[in-house]
Amino acid sequence: MKKLGVIILILTSFLSVNAQLKREYVPDSLCQGFQKTTLDMGNDYNGRVVATLVRKLAPDTTARKAVLYIHGYNDYFFQTEMAEEYIKHGYNFYAVDLRKNGRSILPGQVRGDVRNLVEYYNEIDEALNIIHREKNSFVVLNGHSMGGLIAALYAEDRIGKEKFDAVFLNSPFFAWNLSPILRATILPIAASEGATRPEKTRKASDVSWYGESLHKNFKGEWDYSLTLKPLIAPDITYGWIHAVNDGIKRVQAGLHIAKPVLVMHSDRSINTKKWNDDLFNADAVLNVEDIHKYARNISTNVKIIGITGGMHDLVLSRKPVRDQVYSQLFDYLKQYEPKK
Fold first, then answer.
1. For the chain, what percent of residues have pLDDT higher than 90?
2. CATH of the structural domain 26-334, one choice from 3.40.640.10, 3.40.50.1820, 3.40.50.300, 3.40.50.720
3. With the C-alpha atoms ordered 177, 82, 143, 267, is the resulting torsion angle positive or negative?
4. By three-state DSSP, how is residue 1 classified?
5. 28 vs 313: CA distance, rounded Å
6. What 3 state SS string does 22-50 have?
7. What is the pLDDT of residues 180-197, one digit of tens each?
């Protein structure tokens, strides 16, 4: 009888663990044909936080390659064409909407509020664990803009424990796009304020040109939620400034990412106070010279490519440009993919 009780206890524990490991996905209401699952990240300084893992699997059920995409600031995953390109090349596609962003915003939360970029490591760890449990053995970590900054720092801090095999950074946020005077004066004050009064907010931007160059309701070609990705970025917290500034300083001091890294950015930037058609052919958010400068110091195995006519989010550029992005990306990854 005692043995039977032990067997029942072991079986119950096994079934409980199995249930935890098996993720429940539901159809994603924002991207047709995709699924999503909620990742409970416990509580932070403001209460409960969650992240959202979105996926679409390759039709080949034997596919063992995968990518985890990390979005940028004032952003969420909606780039379904990018996902389909990965799938076409035999990858299972996954994207994480980070806590307090996109699909993961909970009532009462300040969009994007963060005190330390390390906070995001929890959902990246969990997403990668799920990806491996779903039988993927070769994984690419793909970050855009602020997601590129986070991915670079994560890759550095997981050296020796990586659950990914290559890194692709699309226009990573490696420097503030500010004048030297503002970088030397206002920025340190704002970052310092973020260390002591992180919940205090300030206006992020009053310019809508980049958003208008993207969205189909204005001058662009893409359809996405203007609630989750507004044309004008919402207010930011000083805690966010402090966290991002600390991350940028780490990158600029130099990283030693062990896995191969591909960095792509536009060949030029644009800074305009009014509408200009060059917004379709240049980075309107970051200074590409800064990206190139600091990308050289993140790894001894880094390839940097400037894309002629690229927008800030390269995969949202005009079709001939993004076709070039995909060609360069998958040619690069072929070097590291498992041989058949």
1. 90
2. 3.40.50.1820
3. negative
4. coil
5. 23
6. CCCCEECCCCCCCEEEEEEEEEECCEEEE
7. 999 999 999 999 999 999
